[in-house]
């Protein structure tokens, strides 16, 4: 198989703008409203989503800003110039492991969720394998192709979720949203942490931004891309609370799927639309798995420059498949998600802070290298 | 073709077959569509209740198409008894040659006898909320007698009894009926520990079902405590502002007049903060049209219209006060939405008293409720009168 060559093998800043929400939006779009409803009363979770959103958007900006000072350098090279070589190798390895873990988590949850809602008799392992094979296929091709795929799927995700929200208007009840501001401060803190964990995927910026041509525009556009996610989460959360009420949202495992199941499209002709919605949300999980897999490949490539890309891609796939089969049921899957959410949110923070500090100390000496 | 591709061709063909999703394929001819479920209490031997589950399965051949209606029955009812719904359902499937499909289930009927057992309603509804293929939009109704008899009522113009019942619920032209309640709403009420209401249906003939009124499910003990019909039900609908288009009949200067409700809303106010003697004021505002009048007063005159409005207001107030007496003093169960009002507008107070709102201390029964009614007659009908008696 020879990979398809695109006419322009380069990434623009708007590709980053699209990649950020594509990676951030994954399984959390399905379960965030339920998680928030556990700690925050009535519809007060919007505050938590916005506070966490502002944090995520600013973190995105800070990451993008520092990385954009090193065009055409790999993460390994600019981090070793700022933080010394061993640290750079360690961080690169951590990002590689994290990318693999996220990809494995997405494979594992897609197989568990779609077995529950779509494929009753198909074994989980088969669903996971077929999903992973497509991810592997996409990653083994051209890197620009991944960004094209994101640009194709992301509008669909927003469009379909928007449609769902419009259809749900008839089922909303104002009583469910009121009263406002009744949550205690602890509830807000817990809710903010929970929603901050949903804004994952900032880590990909360390690797992709150096490839961008118009690198000066990247920080603003990346932050703008993250703000779409804030908006989407906010809308989904409010709609779920307005339709189900807080007490019910709290006990529903995947409120967004349940929402798709409860709406009826006026006219009575189109019913049972949730399979269609579900297919679109699977693409959002697919793009996340694909991008994080690719980051893992990139990170390993920079550590082991002698290996061919295809060798790394095909070498990682059995490992990822193995990790993805480790959670046996949804409970273990949720635990996997929790651990992963903490590490994916914390790692970029722990990388970007030393980078900025060292950049401040060493000054802009390395600029434009 | 590239020769290098040849060895992987068999593999690709294998994937083509396995990845097309045929694993879960069930042909539509092999599905048995379930349209309604009726749950009765078979026997109660002390500790464990034995349920009788009746399922209505669509027979597509009997249904036919719009242009070619099928002959014969379009449904078949199967009953089995057992301890749990899911288990009994699987037992029923032993009588069924097709795979049971619950995705089009629209209706769950529960017998009054079963709902009167403590916690039974929540227990039997669990399976409908838990199963991922079921909808949250399934309607819940309570049957006055046996639930399964409702599934045998076959009107001349509708082929499937379940469809007939769901259409009755949606076709609300009486004040004494409520909006249909869905299983998602019931789950919410059970989760936030509130009392709620469910439509009450009864069979009146082999081919007819009557929407009798409203069943009241108390929070604690969690069971059906009473049913509201007539004035009780009408008054409740006026107070909650949920009166759908329906009518009120009263006497205006000795002659009978019937008003049709065209719009209804209500506004709650809490007048004090003393939780042991809360005082509520409910302002009901209604718009109505005159539909039937046996007298001859000319209501195109302003002062006469006032008389009509006053008579109308008085009647609505009377009905509402009957409902308050029934709910507050007799049943001591709040299905008049005062809980919702307190939760939204007086959240602090509500958090203090919600544990003992309509049971235990029962602050609800100790409260005082004043009803004010504002009625506006918007349409007097097309003709002033049909006779000239009394002139």
TrEMBL record, chain A:
Q: What is its main location?
A: membrane
A cellular component annotation (GO) from this entry: membrane
Source organism, top-level taxon: Bacteria
Query: Which UniProt key words apply to this protein?
Result: Germination, Membrane, Transmembrane, Transmembrane helix, Transport
The places in or outside the cell where this protein is found are:
Membrane
InterPro entries associated with the record: Spore_GerAB
* GO process annotations (BP): spore germination
Q: Which residues cross the membrane?
A: 16-40, 46-67, 87-105, 117-139, 151-172, 192-211, 223-245, 276-299, 311-327, 339-359
Task: State the membrane topology.
Answer: Multi-pass membrane protein
In terms of NCBIfam families, this protein maps to: 2A0309
Its family remark reads:
Belongs to the amino acid-polyamine-organocation (APC) superfamily. Spore germination protein (SGP) (TC 2.A.3.9) family.
Name of protein: Germination protein GerLB
Provide the species name: Oceanobacillus indicireducens
UniProtKB/TrEMBL annotation, chain B:
Gene Ontology CC entries for this record: membrane
Domain Spore germination GerAC-like C-terminal residues, every copy = 212-381
Q: Which Gene3D superfamilies match?
A: Nutrient germinant receptor protein C, domain 1 (6.20.190.10), Nutrient germinant receptor protein C, domain 3 (3.30.300.210)
| Membrane-topology annotation of the record | Lipid-anchor
Q: Does the keyword Electron transport apply?
A: no
Location comes to: Membrane
The identity of this protein, by name, is: Germination protein GerLC
Residue limits of the Spore germination protein N-terminal domain? 24-202
- UniProt keyword list: Germination, Lipoprotein, Membrane, Palmitate, Signal
Q: Which PROSITE patterns did the record assign?
A: PROKAR_LIPOPROTEIN (PS51257)
One of its GO biological process terms is: spore germination
User: What is the source species?
Assistant: Oceanobacillus indicireducens
Similarity comment: family membership:
Belongs to the GerABKC lipoprotein family.
InterPro entries attached to this UniProt entry: GerAC_N, Spore_GerAC-like, Spore_GerAC-like_C, Spore_GerAC_C_sf
């Amino acid at each position: 198989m020879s990979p398809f060559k695109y006419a322009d093998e380069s990434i623009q800043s708007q590709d980053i703008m699209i990649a950020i929400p594509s990676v951030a939006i994954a399984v959390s779009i399905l379960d965030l409203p339920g998680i928030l409803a556990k700690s925050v009363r009535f519809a007060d979770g919007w505050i938590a989503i916005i506070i966490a959103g502002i944090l995520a958007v600013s973190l995105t900006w800070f990451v993008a800003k520092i990385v954009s000072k090193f065009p055409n350098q790999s993460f390994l090279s600019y981090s070793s110039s700022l933080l010394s070589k061993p640290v750079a190798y360690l961080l690169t390895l951590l990002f590689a492991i994290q990318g693999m873990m996220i990809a494995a988590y997405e494979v594992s949850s897609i197989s568990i969720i779609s077995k529950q809602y779509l494929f009753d008799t198909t074994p989980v392992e088969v669903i996971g394998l077929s999903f992973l094979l497509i991810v592997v296929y996409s990653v083994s091709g051209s890197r620009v192709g991944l960004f094209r795929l994101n640009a194709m799927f992301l509008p669909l995700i927003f469009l379909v979720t928007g449609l769902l929200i419009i259809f749900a208007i008839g089922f909303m009840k104002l009583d469910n949203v009121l009263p406002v501001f009744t949550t205690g401060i602890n509830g807000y803190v817990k809710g903010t942490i929970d929603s901050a964990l949903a804004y994952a995927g900032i880590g990909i910026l360390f690797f992709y931004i150096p490839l961008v041509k118009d690198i000066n525009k990247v920080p603003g556009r990346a932050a703008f891309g993250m703000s779409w996610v804030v908006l989407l989460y906010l809308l989904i959360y409010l709609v779920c609370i307005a339709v189900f009420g807080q007490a019910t949202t709290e006990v529903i495992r995947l409120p967004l799927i349940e929402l798709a199941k409860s709406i009826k499209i006026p006219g009575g002709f189109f019913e049972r639309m949730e399979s269609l919605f579900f297919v679109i949300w699977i693409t959002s999980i697919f793009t996340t798995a694909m991008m994080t897999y690719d980051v893992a490949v990139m990170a390993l490539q920079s550590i082991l420059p002698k290996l061919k890309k295809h060798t790394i891609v095909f070498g990682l796939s059995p490992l990822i498949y193995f990790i993805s089969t480790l959670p046996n049921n949804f409970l273990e899957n949720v635990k996997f998600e929790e651990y992963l959410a903490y590490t994916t949110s914390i790692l970029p923070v722990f990388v970007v802070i030393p980078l900025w500090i060292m950049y401040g100390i060493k000054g802009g000496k390395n600029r434009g290298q | 073709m590239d020769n290098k591709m040849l060895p992987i061709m068999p593999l690709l063909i294998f994937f083509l077959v396995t990845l097309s999703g045929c694993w879960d394929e069930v042909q539509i001819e092999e599905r048995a569509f379930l349209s309604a479920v009726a749950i009765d209490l078979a026997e109660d031997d002390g500790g464990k209740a034995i349920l009788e589950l009746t399922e209505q399965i669509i027979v597509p051949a009997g249904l036919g198409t719009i242009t070619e209606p099928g002959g014969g029955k379009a449904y078949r009812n199967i009953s089995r008894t057992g301890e749990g719904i899911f288990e009994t359902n699987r037992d029923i499937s032993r009588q069924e040659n097709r795979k049971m499909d619950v995705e089009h289930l629209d209706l769950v009927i529960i017998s009054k006898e079963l709902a009167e057992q403590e916690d039974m309603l929540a227990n039997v509804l669990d399976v409908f909320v838990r199963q991922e293929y079921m909808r949250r939009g399934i309607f819940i109704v309570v049957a006055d007698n046996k639930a399964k008899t409702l599934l045998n009522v076959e009107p001349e113009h509708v082929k499937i009894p379940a469809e007939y019942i769901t259409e009755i619920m949606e076709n609300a032209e009486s004040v004494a009926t409520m909006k249909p309640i869905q299983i998602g709403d019931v789950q919410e009420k059970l989760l936030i520990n509130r009392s709620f209401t469910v439509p009450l249906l009864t069979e009146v003939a082999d081919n007819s079902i009557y929407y009798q009124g409203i069943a009241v499910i108390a929070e604690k003990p969690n069971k059906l405590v009473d049913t509201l019909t007539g004035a009780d039900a009408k008054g409740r609908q006026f107070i909650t502002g949920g009166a759908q288009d329906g009518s009120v009949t009263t006497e205006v200067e000795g002659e009978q007049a019937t008003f049709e409700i065209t719009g209804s809303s209500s506004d709650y106010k809490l007048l004090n903060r003393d939780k042991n003697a809360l005082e509520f004021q409910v302002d009901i505002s209604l718009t109505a049209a005159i539909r039937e009048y046996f007298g001859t007063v000319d209501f195109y005159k302003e002062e006469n219209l006032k008389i009509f409005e006053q008579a109308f207001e008085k009647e609505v107030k009377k009905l509402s006060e009957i409902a308050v007496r029934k709910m507050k003093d007799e049943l001591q169960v709040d299905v008049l939405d005062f809980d919702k009002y307190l939760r939204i507008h007086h959240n602090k107070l509500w958090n203090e008293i919600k544990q003992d709102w309509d049971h235990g201390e029962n602050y609800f029964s100790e409260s005082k409720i004043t009803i004010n009614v504002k009625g506006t007659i918007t349409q007097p009908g097309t003709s002033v009168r049909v006779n000239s008696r009394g002139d």
